[in-house]
Design a protein that fits this description.
With 102 residues, the chain is an all-alpha fold. It is 57% helix and 0% strand.
Length: 102
Amino acid sequence: MEFDAEERQTPCPLGLIAATVALMTRYADPAPGQTASGPCDVHPLLAKKIAANLLFLQHHPELPSHFAQVMAQARAQWCGMVEHNAGSAPLPAAHAHPSMRH
């Protein structure tokens, strides 16, 4: 099978959901003894990745619109948490790649 550089593949929604839940689990229980970085170093990165995954799920073409609404609400909560706890700049607006839009 040839890979066309112009063709973008949409990730499997179930895989993306599973990965996001795994990240959320890691965020909730960082197990600081298992990594070189402490939880304070890892938490902001995990939260940003979780918010990004929720954005992709919100705009995933294979998921129903009511699921998108739930993902948008969850992403808003995670973005607020990232901005509040990390004191970082706001996350980018909710713009997904065109292949991820309905």
